[in-house]
Task: structure prediction
Amino acid sequence: MRIPADILAAAVKDLSDLVAIPSVSARGEGMEACADSIERLLAEAGFATEQHPGDVGPFVVGETGDGPFTLVIYNHYDVQPEDPVDLWTAPPFTLSERDGRLYGRGSADDKGEFVSRLAGWREFRKTHPGPLLFKLIWIAEGEEEIGSPSLNRFLDKRFPDTKADLCWWEYGEVDKSGRPIILMGFKGILAVELECRTARADLHSSLGAIFDNPLWRLAAAISSLRDASGRILIDGFYDSVIAPDPRSRELAAKPPFPLESLQEETGGRRLLEGVNAATFYEHLNFEPCLNVNGFHGGYDGEGAKTVLPCTGMAKLDFRLAPGQNPVEIAELLRRHLDAKGFDDIALKVLDAEVLGVRSDPSHAAVDLGAELLEKWFGRPAIIQPSSAASGLAHPFIHKFGATLFGAGLTHHGAMLHSPDENILVSHFENMIGFSAEFFAALAGRFGSAPEAEPHV
Result:
């Protein structure tokens, strides 16, 4: 389907203006300027707007409408650093169009998502200019790319008693074949560092006959954490996992793509024991996992050096299921190491902020969204119970009580966080059209008290 050329042109102009602002939160650069632009766009679209300070970048809030149904839209305006600049085909902070794609830092993550929704909102209001019969809260933050350090505090202070029905998350995906993917959840994450020291300084390797080696210690400790199937062997690790609801299990039982295509796309070959073409999608959606991100110590230069290292370090991350608290898992990890005789290994928690969430996909708004996505993309939407990745959605789900709805334009070749980040113009256009009709559908379905579903 197509939208009028002037609507698309106006949206591309808005996106170009936002991409031109290098709002890199890692450097604290361009944050106020970008927040001001976001606020101006929301105000011009009819929202009552305000800004609130964050640790690095301001939070922008737009509100409009009133009614028994509340929609929260969450986006972010900060972007990743542009380095390495020499790998970009065109300047990273200049929106450029080539071969049906729009390139620029933030074009996908997350300025393009914001602009497509806002353009759709404008079109919706042209045909529905009267009072909005549901409440809409639009939140744009400037710290997502650095872990959203002040998001929880901001939400507690600004929205202490707010309840919501639906949270339209910052992004959604479009697969390689053009099918839109609705994300209903994310895994939590715990990132840790293990360090072992066995001497003041590196020793001659002949002393390995009497002194222990920190790299052996770390290897033994890490190997005690997981078996060949990927199951984590820490006592109590799975005790708090929330089992998937029947509808989520049903969705995960039918993979929307074959395992072979994932292996071809990623180059991954060696599977965990018990993972096969029939079970891999359930593992991606529901199973926690433990990764060794890096293992460091000793001599790694050219040639040989017969040395007994004095210290070693490993970085690990746990992807966690809903119900698992990262802080509690870190405590269980410490107890496991001590019980196995690795009390000399120091444990440092690097990230324990993100909790796993998974929403019930049977919410009526999800069905509305799936129907409209199919209309605009021409392919049936995939409702995915949980992304295999992590996102800081839990405040909106746990505090607001909202159902998560992750729908957007991020395709699998978008080069997120990399040079030549991009979106497809056709997906941008589809999401503008989808957004306009989604707002209209929500107003029609939930915009009056007799038909509205209660806040969850």
